[in-house]
Specification:
two-stranded antiparallel sheet, 6 helices, EC 3.1.1.-, hydrolase
Length: about 260
Amino acid sequence: MDVVGKSLNCTHTANNMSITEEAAKTAKATWSGPTTTDGKFIWYGPNTGAQLSGQSLQLTNDIGLAMTTCTNGTCQGAPVGLGEVWIKYWIEANPDWSYKNMTREAFDTFAHEAVQRYESVIGTNDPDLTAFYKKGGKILGYHGMHDQIIPVKGTRHYYNNVKEIIPEVASFYRMFEVPGLLHCSGGKGGQPTNTFDALRAWVENGTVPAELPHSFKDDNGDEQHRLLCPYPQKAWLKINDTDKAVYKSTDFVCV
C-alpha cells in the first residue's frame, strides 16, 4: 500500500493520477489470485507487471482482469466477458444471469461447480504424460510472463506436476517463459517466432532446444535480441556493460 495517495503518470490517459486505496487493494487482490470467502486458494493471479486494466473487451492484448468503466468520475467493475459468459451459459444456463447480483459465496459455488461438471470433458491438466513420453513425443511450449488472462504460474504448476511423475521431464518437455509478453501477443517483450522450427529440429534431428534466440522492437524502434531459457532456468547478462542501447542474444546465458 506504499503507493496510496501518490501521483503517477498514466500512459493510457497521458495524465497524472492519484492512486486510491481501493485501486491498490484491487491490484493486490488480482495479483494474489482468487480465493474462497474463507481464504482458501482457488487459482493463481497474473504476475506483477501484467496489465490489470484495459480498453477493450474484445482484443486479447488490451484487456485485464480488473477492468473498470467510469461515467462522470464514478467507476464500477467491468470484468472480462469470458467469465461472465461461462457462468451465464455453462453453469447457470440462464442468458439473463448477471454478475452484478453475484455474492462471494455464489462465486465460490460457481468455481467449484465448474470443475466438478466440466473437468472430465475439457480439462487439460492431467500431468501424467508417461505414455506420450514413452512413445518419444516432444513438447515445446512458451508462456508470456505478463499474460494477463492465463497466469504463467499455472503453467509452472503444471510443469512441476509433470516433473513429479517424470523427473527427467526436460528430456521431452521444455517450457519457455517470455518476459514482457501479454496474452497471445502484445507487450514489451514480443513473441517468439522460432518455436516450431526448434520443435521440428528436436523431433527430426535430436537437437535439444537448450535456448531460444529471441528478438523484438523496443519503444525506440531498435531491434533488441534476448535469450529465452527453458523453465526453471533464467537468462543472465554475461557482459559487464549494462548501458548498451542494443543487446545481442549472445550477451546472455541460461542459468
